[in-house]
Amino acid sequence: AQTVTQSQPEMSVQEAETVTLSCTYDTSESNYYLFWYKQPPSRQMILVIRQEAYKQQNATENRFSVNFQKAAKSFSLKISDSQLGDTAMYFCAFMKQSMNRDDKIIFGKGTRLHILP
Amino acid sequence: EPEVTQTPSHQVTQMGQEVILRCVPISNHLYFYWYRQILGQKVEFLVSFYNNEISEKSEIFDDRFSVERPDGSNFTLKIRSTKLEDSAMYFCASSENRAKNIQYFGAGTRLSVL
């Protein structure tokens, strides 16, 4: 069974600083996807960034980038030049790459990130 | 931008009653999901649905739970004989196709069973 672990329940950083959220996972699968989802207070979860395990290059989306270490099963999220709107719960998540219907997402417990003015 | 919409935002019910949680997925999406999050715990998969049938369900999704897409737009989760431990946030998600592997989530319905 797959598991996703986020070891930082809560973090706070000053606006404009860079922050890194940690995530590790465990799987015996070779092909899979990893995600970071953001959930602002009382809002829906939105996809921040997606990484395909077969790709060595780390995914980037504007100020968001990941450090994907497949051998170490580590998938951290870096937020550069943090903004007040980045305040949210961040979930690391895993999905098998499957030819059958197994496309459920496995989530970590989340890291609550506060950006301070 | 299209969104997944869930209603109500908060549902309170008495133990033993039936509840229906409603979701309107994004209109061209074909794959539908329910997840739940008990307070302080992980978001957990409940069920996936495609082509008018359940694709996969977790052990949480016992015979008190059912899903339906009654009219081609709504996607509902029904829980019969609710228990205290059903209290949680329930999230609906939809996906355009499996190749894109991106699930879009609603804001959730908080279910409180008293």
The CATH architecture assignment of chain B turns out to be: Sandwich
Helix content of chain A: under 10%
**Separation of the first and last Cα atoms of chain A:** 41 Å
Number of DSSP helical runs of chain A:
0
Q: How many discrete structural domains of chain A?
A: 1
Could you tell me the CATH topology label of chain A: Immunoglobulin-like
Helical/strand content category of chain A = mainly beta
What is the CATH class designation of chain A? Answer: Mainly Beta
Average pLDDT reading of chain A: 93
Largest interface: A-B, 22 and 26 residues
Q: What is the subunit arrangement here?
A: heterodimer
Secondary structure tally: strands of chain B: 11
Q: Please outline the major beta sheet of chain B.
A: 7 strands, mixed
Query: How many DSSP H or I helices of chain B?
Result: 0
CATH superfamily of chain B: Immunoglobulins
What would you report as the Rg of chain A, rounded to the nearest angstrom? 14 Å
Distance from N terminus to C terminus of chain B (CA atoms, Å) equals 36 Å
Q: Low-confidence runs of chain B (pLDDT<50, min 5 residues)?
A: none
Low-pLDDT segments of chain A: none
Task: Summarize the structure in words.
The complex is a heterodimer of chains A (117) and B (114). Chain A has 117 residues and is mainly beta. Chain A has one domain: Immunoglobulin-like (Sandwich). In chain A, a hairpin with a 6-residue loop joins strand 5 and strand 6. By secondary structure, chain B is mainly β. In chain B, strands 2, 4, 5, 6, 9, 10 and 11 form a seven-stranded mixed β-sheet that branches. A four-stranded antiparallel β-sheet of chain B has the order 1-3-8-7, with no helix packed on it. The model of chain B has no long low-confidence stretch (mean pLDDT 93).
